[in-house]
Amino acid sequence: MLCAELLARARIVTLSLQNFPVEIIPSHFEETLDKAAFPQPWRYVEETALGKAKEVAGRLGDRQDWAVVIGADTVVVLDNKILEKPGSDARAREMLTSLSGRQHTVFTGLALVWKGGERVSHEATLVSFAPLTPQVIDSYLSSGEPLDKAGAYP
């Protein structure tokens, strides 16, 4: 089972698990963890991924047709501040402007939950953005894409 809200992420995982039956189930985990409670961003992203996977596993309950649930979460970190999904054009513009021409880190947490166990991990990637002109930001915002991506990511 795969908890995925973004179709692109689901496609990537499905392709890498071609020889296994995969069912995509969106998680209903409330992403309301207190970021201040996590001194390192990777701990936050791991805990969020685990929360997503556990929520789906809990709904699957005693069904016999699942072996593992995979949950994932991604955040962008700039100046030690976690940037999640912007939710509005104004917030997306603010994020993209702050990322423009700068380096930042993208953390992806991955959680596996199975009957009787769980494991979490993360990956950190250093990313350098080219300078973004206001016109480029406007064009990207008009696509509607940045609203549901951590850091308003292109």
UniProtKB/TrEMBL annotation:
Superkingdom of origin: Eukaryota
Cofactor(s) essential for the protein: a divalent metal cation
InterPro entries: ITPase-like_fam, Maf-like
UniProt cross-references to Gene3D superfamilies, sorted A to Z: 3.90.950.10
Alphabetized SUPFAM superfamilies for the sequence: ITPase-like
Keywords: Hydrolase
Stated name of the protein: Probable bifunctional dTTP/UTP pyrophosphatase/methyltransferase protein
Organism in which the protein naturally occurs: Geodia barretti (Barrett's horny sponge)
